Amino acid sequence: MINHEFTKADKVNIRDMIDQNQRGNSIRRRIERLIPIFLTVIASLSILTTIGIIWTLLFETVEFFKRVPFLDFFTGTVLKPLSQNPEFGVLPLLMGTVTSSLIAMAVAAPIGLMAAIYLSEYASPKVRKVVKPVLELLAGVPTIVYGFFAFTFVTPLLRDFIPGLQATNILSPGLVMGVMIIPMIASLSEDAMSSVPNAMREGAYGLGATKLEVTRKVVIPAALSGIIASFVLGISRAIGETMIVTIASGSTKNFTFDITQSMQTMTAYIVEVTGGDAAAGSTVYYSLYAVAMTLFVFTLVMNLIARAVSKKFREEY
Predict the structure, then answer these.
(1) Which residues pair with 88 in a beta bridge?
(2) Domain 79-313 is of which CATH architecture?
(3) SS3 breakdown of the chain: % helix, strand, coil, rounded to 5?
């Protein structure tokens, strides 16, 4: 009798366990069906954000070009948005942006590449663990600090050697921007060089090549896609820089090749217009979006070039 009751109770407990397990499996299946939907929504946020930005820029840019001819904007060498007879030529801003970016790359490209070569080929693992994080600390300095550094230290220092240098100029922020993007170029280039198989180095050493010859003729050609991509990304970073040029390059909209003169970049113009001088709905207000769209397309083209170059010169091992 006792054994019979125990067996019956045991059957009831097993049935309850089966029912609970089925309910648990049902909940898990529902969660499994919801997870892909949730992850899809999260992954789509960046795409939707990009679409929203492009739509906003495009809508307001079209409104600007209803008031200002397209050719006048992209071929005009005079930018006087707040004068009685306003002119909206973007070439002075393009000149300032390109000039500052080229100066920055003239500083960052050789120094960053040499730093990458040292870290990848010459530094010991112990030294690399110390030097690379210290080098990357430069990337953590706020850009407004770089801007004040360019304005209060670099410019007065350069004026001792270049008497005609203006208090605000494009040379000083260009040099400081170069210092700012050194960590990006050095880190990306070092990663590309470190990914080159050691077998290629050892084969070159076995043929009697020196360390410099191995670096110059084996490692750099093999890592060329990553190095070029780091350069292009560095240029994109320089093009989009705002605070350094806003503080140190001034707001004079000069169309000139003289790097000692004050010039304004596209990002600095955007900061100026959003400062409150332009009334909403005015032509000056809409010029903000036209310049922003130009900057967006400029940066997008640079990133597409970086991807194309990386794909063309990529080496797979």
Answers:
(1) 79
(2) Orthogonal Bundle (1.10)
(3) 80, 0, 20
Residue of 248, 230, 269, 205 whose CA lies nearest to 117: 230
Each residue's pLDDT tens digit, 38-69: 888 888 888 888 888 888 888 889 888 888 88
Q: What is the DSSP string of 78-108?
A: -EETTSSS-EE--HHHHHHHHHHHHHHHHHH
Q: Which residues contact 284 (CB under 8 A, 6 or more apart)?
A: 81, 82, 86, 273, 277, 278
Q: DSSP letter at 151?
A: I
- Beta carbons within 8 Å of 100's beta carbon, 6+ residues apart: 170, 173, 174, 177, 238, 241, 245, 249, 263, 265
Q: Read off the tokens for 315.
A: 């080496």
Domain ranges of the chain: 2-67, 79-313
* Structural contact between residues 264 and 251, judged by C-beta atoms closer than 8 angstroms: yes
Distance CA 91, CA 89 (A): 6
Structure-token pair, residue 292:
């922003």
Q: What is the pTM of this model?
A: 0.81
Chain position carrying tokens 């495009």: 58
